[in-house]
Structures are given as structure tokens and as C-alpha cells.
Amino acid sequence: MQGRRQALALTAVVMIVAAGLVTGTGQAAPSVTLTIATVNNPDMVVMQSLTKDFEAKNPTIKVNYVVLPENDLRQKVTTDVATGAGGFDIVTVGTYEVPFWAKNKWLVSLEPFFSGMSSAESAAYDRGDLLKPVMKALTVGGQAYTLPFYAESSMTYYRKDLFARAGLTMPLHPTWDQVAGFAKKIHNPSQKVYGILLRGLPGWGEQLAVLDTIVNTFGGRWFDMSWQPQLTSPAFTNAVTFYAGLLRSAGEPGATSSGFTELETLMSQGNAAMWVDATVAAGYLADPKTSKIAGNIGFAYAPTEVTPKGSHWLWAWSLGLEGSSRHKAEAFKFLTWATSPDYIKLVARSRGWVAVPPGTRYSTYNTPGYKRVAAFAAVVEDSINTADPTNATLENVPYTGVQYVGIPEFAGMGTTVSQFIAAAIAGTDTVPSALQKAQQSVEQTMKQAGYLK
Amino acid sequence: MTVKPSWRSAALTLFTYLVALALVAPIAWMVMTGFKTEAQAFQLPPLLAWRPTLENFGYALGVAQFGRFFLNSVIIGLGSTVLACLLGVPAAYSLAFYPTRHTRDVLFWILSTKMLPVVAVIVPLYVLFSRLHLLDTRLGMILLYTMMNLPLVVWMMRSFFAEVPREIIEATQVDGASLAAGFVRVTLPLAVPGLAATTLLSLILAWNEFFIAVSMTYTNAATLAVFISSFKTSEGLFWAKMSAASALAIAPVVLAGWAAQRQLVRGLTMGAIKG
Amino acid sequence: MANQRIGEMPPRARGGLPPSVAAPPARKAARASGSRHRTPALVLLLPALIYLAVMTQVPFLLTLYYSFHFWNLMQPTLGMRFVGLANYAQIVLHDPIFRSVILNTVVITLSLLMLTVVLGLGLALLLHREFPGRGVVRTLLISPFLIMPTVSAVMWKNMLLNPVYGLFDYVLRGAGLPGPDWLATHPLLSVVAIVTWEWTPFMMLVLLAGLQSVSLELIDSARVDGAGPLGVFRFVTLPHLGLYVQIAMLLGTIYLVQVFGEIFVATSGGPGIATTNLPYYVYLTAFQYWTIGVASAIGVVTVILTTFAAMGFFRILNQAVATV
């Protein structure tokens, strides 16, 4: 009896597995299946759930999503394109990647596809409506390689009620010294209200995004014109010392574990007086469904210090066609669907104006419906328009990028440097010592990469 | 059986309950969080009374397509475990009952195949699988996970076989029964507790493996590991949704664990077989 | 002796000498008909060996091949150049981080091994008795191992270790003590805590299987000889367990050296390089710096180091066990 039951179980298992192997992927397929790689940010999630709109408009196309956290996605997509595996048709890349991907021919120029659009389609898409600074960052050699899905800059969020109670006023264009003063005054850790929230989580796209804008606005830079690293220069050191000091005296505890997500939670739960970070958080903080402080949130520009250049960043997540895709024409249709004015209206209808992907089109910012629910819209639009990756530092530099250095080596170097700085923030190392280690590491990498001799 | 004063036994039992509860508390908390909204998820002390919501589960099952990933995890997990046992149990038998002077080296070599960190070999594997058209296939994943678990199966089953009383082995051999019959009818049932533990561990390791899953699949063979990773985002709140997704993902393994641990009990009866 | 297990010396003969993992000599001598069984023995063994050889050695050889080349994924125009041992020279001679990474790996692995085996043994002993609800408790105790490592890490990071929202600091503050930023100031401790919580059930399962396979006959005869519960434990159970502890530690070493997901999620190897171990360092090199050649070299070095460690471990364990 025992044996028979076991044999039956084993047979069942084998059959399940065999069926699984045989069925594999073959469902009755529409004529084209597109595979898209994307990050799991809220705007992308909305896109994923609205894809049936695209599929309804294009019945022969089906879209499959690969959704991953940012780091995993980069790893996966880069390995895919670099080894020629060609598993994706559409890839989500940031402004950082676009230049080298275009150079490596991992992305294809979109110009031929734009030329192929009918006049009705072009008019509906309205390419000129896309924010110029954003498109500039996605254009290489005069040709657009990707289309922006959403774009952001950085700004200052503050609690109007806490400021009023402390008798303070936040100017529209604050300086970092002012902000530091406000933070220390309101900082009340025993009540779990922290003066200011700043990212300390290691990562070139986490901690360094904010820190680099501070370095810029303090007059510092990563490299001089002969690619010599400047991490131990006075301006850079001042910026990092200021940052670590501010975090330790008036910032959130657990700073080195705090990235955008953690800080968004803290701010929306009412645990902080100020937060300098991405403009995409504005909608979330202003929405009473998700934020406890929705009625008390104020918006100001990102703080400056010695120079306004580079004080707020420019970033966009954009969609591009992978070079090895065999369905480029169909993929282009998806690209234009997801970045079109119609898509924005679709999101507005189904989720409300607060949820539309920000920072991509002038028309969004000219729509009364949007302006009504987005009190922050003016600051955001202006911040994006004035963030110039080609002119972000006091002194000349051989690179582009506001909150990053536009060279492929930066991802690794930046992450390593941010780790050393995290140790300084945590107090397990001093700022000069951490910067010294960072400087050495960067020098070594730059030598190996051939920038330095 | 042992004779203990009952208060001591009761105290020990109570202590065991407490330890189990302490160990499991974070998981229980996480499962509860799956029923909260994102805003409620971060309350401290954790809300013990709230209006539970199914929206996270709905999202996980709906938009996020839990079912698709679940199916893949089942097929790949079961498939690789079965294959690893089919290959590994006979090998373990051979190493246990027919040892040679090479046995020790063979065992060591088998173990050494696991010493290369997956991270280091993933790009070569990716290139290989890409050329062989095994990327994003369930077969490819089964092959990889079998490779991952085979050493475990061989090592553990060999030890369990080594525990079988030799008289029993000799008895089957003297009887003139064929090797296979003797194995299946006598030796294997004795090693069932070991087999239960081994298959449970293999299944868990395959179910939870995430690096290979994320790297070697796209959409067709993506397992629950990829599903859960997709909830972690750098720009939105995810804790309640991730908790719901994780709760869904561990439920089957917990059930498997419950089923297998009863097999472990049967080990007690093994000692009752008189040699 | 009537109840002699294969591979086990009579418990009273040498104070309970546990079997070593190597082929037990006693049985070899006793087998008269060795050659008759060799063919089926090989036939049973070969499929597994061939499978492993093909599936692991081919990728390994490819990794080795890459390790002798320069290949930057992000710079395909630079191509793949043969550079001999340059990658190895770079990491062994010129890289100040590499030595710390090895040290971290050793510290993390050894602490984890010790903690998980000891705690696992404790749990196994607790479960080795009859008591009501035993099945439920057993399932509960296995459950930390059932969670995906990345999820465990996120759970610990957000729910337990977070200085603002976490349980530990909440309790500490309630007791009037300051709540440290665990992941920042005690990163190694935090990582070890997370992985210990996850892997103790694994050790428990292995050791429990061992405990439960101790022959009742042996226990009874030991009792008949006058041994109390402690004596039974020391002279029957513990020696028998010796084999299982060996397996647990050997398997554990292989798995624990490769701890990656928890570090990836909880600390990203930091602060600084405080929690960067070898696998995480490979990840950084391969997927942040994109230098596949160097990453492959680090992987190969890891294999070499782990092999030596495992061999040394083998020898030390056998010796330690022989002196018990």
C-alpha cells in the first residue's frame, strides 16, 4: 500500500514536471511579443497595469514585463546586451547610461523611426512638447536614442507647521547654511522629529546623488581637466564634512541605511522637518491617502551655497530599443505610446493628475488640472529646466552630469566612494581619512581605465 | 523510555515553545504586515489590531502575476529535486556500500564543485546558456538547480545509508535478491527520514535561490525569487506589498516542511528494527 | 558486535570514537566478494559524476579562461585581450581591499559556523523528545530557513534593526538604553545575526536526523551497562553525532562562505568594506566595475582558498574528533 501511494506520488510529480517542460512558453501567440525590462518604480507599475490599453490599440502585439530593482535590472540588462543574448526589445535606462549605450550600439537611434511616422502620428505625439533639457540628456550626436518616461530634479521639502511653530520661514531659494541652522533648531530626536533627512545609503545613485549636488554647490568637482581626482580638495572636503556633520547633528538615525524609500516613509509619517531629495516624491507627500503631512508640506528649491550651479540634479528614466531586438518597429510603437500626451491623459483619467509621470512634457505643466493638484509643479518644472549636466560645476570639468560623472567607470567608483563616506557618516571613520581612501581608490581605477597615466 | 520528573519535562516543553515563538515572530509579523496598508506597515509598536486589507494580496496575485511565477517555482523546484535524487541517491548508495580508496577523494571533489561562488561563474554560464538557447527556459533552470543540489543529496544520503545496520544489507545479499530489489524493498525505507530531510532541503534551496533565477531568466522561466525581487524598489514604498508577496511565496514551502517533518518522526521506529 | 553500524567502531572500544568521513577500514577487510560488485557500483555512481563534471567544470573552465583575459562589459570596443596573470597580480599584490575581504569572509564564515552548529544542536536536542505539539514546533523552527535570504534581510533591516522603526531599538529605548544604528556601527554583527537566524534550522535538521537515527539498541545496551542520561549522551549519542556535525560543518562552510543575498540587501558590503566578503566583492567587480576578467580571477582565488580551508578543516576535525 505504502509503495503504491509513493509510486503514484512520484508519477504525479514526473507528470507535472514533464508537462511544465513541454508546455514551456508556447501559448497561442499573437504575432509579436515584446519583452520590456523596467524598474519597479511606482510610475512603471502604473505603466504595467495600463498596458492593456496599448495591447487593445495594437492587437497583434503582446508585452511581457521583466520588473526588477534598479541594481538587478542594470546587471541583467547590461549582461544581456553585452553578451549579445538579445533577450529584450525595450530597455529602461537612465540618463547616465544613454551615452555609453549609444556608443556601444546597444541602443539604436530613434530618428529613422520618427521619420517613419505619419504626419497624424507625429502631430499626436508632439515631439516638441518633450522637455528640452531632458531630451538633450537622451540625445547623442544629435540623434535621440531614448524617450523619457519620467524625469526629476531635486528640491527641498519642509513642514510648514513645524516651521511656523519654531518661528522660522523657509525662503524659496535657501542656502545650505540656512538649512543647517533650521535643522538644528527643530531637531527633536526624543519626539522622533528630525531636523533634516538626507540620503546616506551607499550607492552612486543613492547617497552620491544628493552629496554630489552639495559638492557642486560648494564649489567642488570630482576631476580636474586632466582627470586628476579631486576628492581631497578643500571644496570637496568641506562639502562632505558639512554633510556628515549635518546628518550627525540633526539628521535621521540609521542614515547609512536610508535611501530614498526609507526617507520618503519617514517624511510622510511626519518624522522630519525638512528633506532634500527627488522631485518625484512631491506627489506622494502631497497626497493625503499616502502622507500624514499632506496638508502641511511646503516646497522650495534645492539649497545652494557658493554657486547655484549643480545644486539640483537631472535624472530621467527613459525607454529605448535594444540593438539586437527583432521587433524594433513594434517596440517603437510601445515607446511612443508610453511617452505620449495621450498616455499622460490616460493616467490622469484612471489615477488622477497627481499620479501622472512628471517632468517629461511642457503640456503637463500647462494643464490646469495638473496645476490644481500639484502645488509643487512650478518648482519642479523650473528645477528640471535649470539643471544642466554640461554646466554643473564652479570650475571646468572634463565630464558631464550633475549628480554623477558621465563615464562608465563611475558606477563602480562612485559606489566604493559612497561606502567610504558612509563609514564617515556612521562615525566609524573620519571624513579626511575616508576621503583619503576614496581618493586612492578612484586614482587606482582611473589609472587602470587609462584616464590617468 | 527516560524517566523524568514531570515538572522538568513541562518546563522544557514550555521553553521549547518560547524558543519556537521567538524564532518565528519576525515571520508572523511580516505575514501580518501583508494585510496592512503601506502607511500602517511602519507603525511601531506593530499594530496588533487593524482593519486588514487584501489589496496587497490582490496586487500580488493580479498585476504582479503571482500564479505564473509560482508555477515556474513548482516545476523547477520539483524537477531539480527529483533529478538530483535520481542521480544522487544511487551515487550515495555506491559510495556508502562499495567504498574504495578513492571514495574520500570523490566525495571531496563532489563538494568542491560548490566552491566557486555563483556570482563569479554567472557571466560564463550566461554566455554558455545563451549559445545553447537555454536562457529563460525551465529546462535550463532545472539543470542548474540540479547541479546546485546534487552534492548535498550525495553527501547527506551517503551518511544516512552508512547508518543502515550492516546485517540488514548482508541479509538482502544472502537472500539472493537482486541488488535493486534489496535496495528498494529494504534499504530505502530505512533511509526515508534522511531522504525526507534531504529532499526538503533541496526543495527549499531551489525555491529560495535568487541570484541564478534573476540572472538566467526573463519571463518564461522566472521563479518566485524574481517575483519577490520585483517588489523591492528604490523609489516607492513596498514593504506591505513585499510582505504579502513573501507570505504567498513561503506558504507552499511551509506546507512541504510540515509534510516532510512527519517523515522525520518515523526515524524513531528505525531503531526498533532488531539486528 | 551485533549492532555495529557500517563505518562505526564499537562504542565502548575506544571511548566512543566517531567514524571519520573516509572509508572505514573495518568493512573493507570484511568484504570477500569486492570485485563482483564493482561494476554495478560504478554504474550507480557514474551518472551523478558525469552530470556534475559537465555542468560545473565547463563553466569553471570558462571562468578560468576569462580570468586570464581583460574584458570590460561596459567597454566592448576594448575587446577581450589575453593578459596572462595580470588580473591575479592585481588583486593579490596591488589591491588593498582584497586582504580585508578575505579576512571578512573568514570572520563571517567561522562565526556563522560556530553559532549555527551550536544553536542547531541545542534546538535539535530540544526537539528530540516527545512532547505535545512537536510537529507544529518543528515546522515553526524550520521556518526561518524557508524565507528567501533577500526577504529575511529586508525584514531584519526594516522591522528589527532600523533605529527609528525597528523593534530592537524600540525595546532598548523602552529600557532606557540608547538604540544604536545596528547596520552602521555593528555591521558584521548584524549580518551574522541575520544569517544565523536563517541557517540554524538547516543545522538543526541535519543534526536532528542524526539524533533520531541513533539506534535504540545501543542506548539500551548502554543503559544496561549502567550509564545515566548524560553518559548515554556522551558515549552513544555524541560520537554518533560526530559524523553529522562533520557533515553539517563541511556543508555549512561551503554554503556560508557564499553568503551574498543578505549582504547585498542589508549593508551592500559596508559601511566602507566592513561586510564585503568574497562573493560580494566578485559582484562589485563584475557588475559595478564591469571588469569580468578580474571578477573571474577573484572567483578562482575563492575556489583555491575554500579548497585549502575545507581540506584543513577535514584534517583538524578528524584529529579533534580522535582525541575526544
Automatic annotation (TrEMBL), chain A:
Keywords: Signal. CDD domains: PBP2_TMBP_like. Transmembrane segments: none annotated. The keyword Signal applies. Residues 1-28 form the signal peptide. InterPro entries: Bact_solute-bd_prot1 (IPR050490), SBP (IPR006059). Gene3D superfamilies: Periplasmic binding protein-like II. PANTHER family: ARABINOSE-BINDING PROTEIN-RELATED, DIACETYLCHITOBIOSE BINDING PROTEIN DASA. This is Sugar ABC transporter substrate-binding protein.
TrEMBL record, chain C:
It is found in: Cell membrane. The keyword Cell membrane applies. Residues 1-34 are annotated as: Disordered. One of its GO terms (cellular component) is plasma membrane. Residues 102-313 form the ABC transmembrane type-1 domain. It is a multi-pass membrane protein. Residues 18-27 have a biased composition (Low complexity). This is Sugar ABC transporter permease.
